[in-house]
Write a structure and sequence with these properties.
Radius of gyration: 14 Å
Distance between the termini: 28 Å
Number of helices: 7
CATH topology: N-utilizing Substance Protein B Homolog, Chain A
Oligomer: single chain
Number of domains: 1
Structural class: mainly alpha
Helix content: over 70%
Shape: globular
């Protein structure tokens, strides 16, 4: 697993917690991130930038994901899938990471943390988003 893949994994864990506990104190997220990434400053900054970006753009990301996910509301999606998709959509729309790399990383997260159908589901939606953005 690449270092950035590990940072994305930690970002996903934080976003998962945000989703399940929307009223929680967000401050411990930074310490969790530092601890999980062994205080590697570059990786911590990368992971926290992803988390901050998803938090800041969540309404936009959610609206785009609902458009791409025909017949699926966000509420119907598994919490893991929903947050992998938010993370991937944010990276596609707001970072310099090449789209195919983002989709591949998101599919790997879905394989690792999601259900059996999660990788195909995530791939299909992010691929549609990527085609739309080109």
């Amino acid at each position: 697993m690449s270092r950035r893949s590990r940072a994305r994994e930690v970002a996903l864990q934080i976003l998962f917690q945000d989703d399940l506990n929307p009223d929680r104190n967000l401050a411990p997220s930074e310490q969790f991130c530092r601890d999980r990434l062994h205080h590697d400053q570059a990786l911590v900054e990368f992971a926290l930038s992803l988390v901050a970006g998803v938090r800041r753009n969540r309404n936009e990301l959610d609206a785009l994901l609902v458009q791409q996910a025909e017949h699926w509301s966000l509420e119907r999606m598994a919490v893991t899938d929903r947050n992998v998709l938010r993370l991937g959509a944010f990276e596609i729309l707001h970072t310099e990471t090449p789209g195919p790399v983002v989709v591949n990383e998101a599919v790997e997260l879905a394989k690792r943390f999601g259900a059996e159908q999660s990788p195909q589901f995530v791939n299909g939606i992010l691929d549609k988003l990527l085609q739309k953005e080109r």
